[in-house]
Amino acid sequence: MSEVVYLDYASSSRVDPRVAEAMLPYFKELYGNPSSPHALGTRMKGALEESRAKVAWLINAEKPSEVIFTSGATESTNMLLRGAAFRSREKGNHIVASKIEHISVLNTLKYLSKSGFEVTYLPVDSTGILDLEALKASVTDKTVLVTVGYANNEVGTIQPVKEIAEIVHSKRALFHSDATPAVGKIPVDAQKDGIDIMTISSWDMYGPYGIGAAYVKKGSRMEPLILGGGQEFGMRSGTENVAGAVGMGKASELAKLEMAGDAERIAAIRDKMVSRILSEVPYSFLNGHPTKRLPNNASIRFNYVEGESMVLTLDMEGIIVSSGSACSSKTLEPSHVLIAMGIPHVEAQGSLLMALGRFSKPDDGDRVADVLPRIVKGLRQMSPIAPPEVR
Ligand code: PMP
What we know:
Blueprint: E1 5-6, H1 17-23, H2 25-28, H3 39-59, E2 67-70, H4 73-87, E3 94-98, H5 103-114, E4 118-122, H6 132-138, E5 143-147, H7 161-170, E6 174-178, H8 190-193, E7 197-201, E8 212-216, H9 242-280, E9 284-286, E10 297-302, H10 307-316, E11 319-320, H11 336-340, H12 345-348, E12 351-355, H13 364-381
Parallel strand pairs: 1-11, 3-4, 3-5, 5-6, 6-7
Antiparallel strand pairs: 2-8, 7-8, 9-10, 10-12
């Protein structure tokens, strides 16, 4: 059997071998608590701070101390949204979010609304771009926080982040962005983009699991989620995961240096694959924005077929894709992102998310495009809802 074609980078990425290499000494010979004043501790502290500086460099933070290491994107979002909301309570209790936020954002907001906050969910257009007029109308003097993902993990749409930041700041609210799918894939510049607090993942950019980061711009109102020994500038207590931080630092450095080349190469494979699929499979449509999208994302819906059936049939051909966000796939509900974009339920259920990555091979797209017309036709033949002309 030929090698597997892996197009599920939105659910799980491979750790870059250069990252694993950089981490190895921290599992074998290097140890010590970064808070200890002795030589071993100081050496670990040095490695931690060097890694923090690399993450800061990737996102153009003004200072490395604006980067707090956490256990991953979900924890960062919990800390940032809860920490900013509770800290700003005396200003107001209003939060604004887009309807297409990741489930980690949505469930944190659900928790905050049970704790006395009012949350306004804003619509997006049919390509997934936030309605800026609705944003302007909803942000008031009582708004403490606005959260809009930098780019959507399911459909790849990139938001007009700078414009959003200007509107948010006109009412002196904090702007949070979950930039998990964007950092390391497209240039994210915390200062120029006007982001106050930001969620950053490690594994999404070929770093290790079990570590992530939260960007907290100097002066942002914030309180910690995890209390203890006061590590990470008091923002995230617990003995630091130095091996993880070293891995995330290395991944950040590689992303900064290789992002442009990666993006061009990956987008070329993706674009050829998408155009072949759209022209060779009848009743197939691209989800998301045609140009303002992540270079690695292809989200396509196929009428009269079910996403899960396509995932399983492609799996038997050695092609790994997903039907949407792995984080929400325990529910059988159609994606809230596609629904918010106005796609009818039945069509949303026929979507495939094909996310490419650094290790995608030039012929990966063709391998998918070669088999999909046959697979979709076969499934449509068994579908009770497919009209005769598509069978
Ligand atoms: N936010 C977004 C936008 C994501 O795509 C993901 C998953 N890749 C997460 C948050 C959660 O990441 P994790 O499960 O690593 O905490």
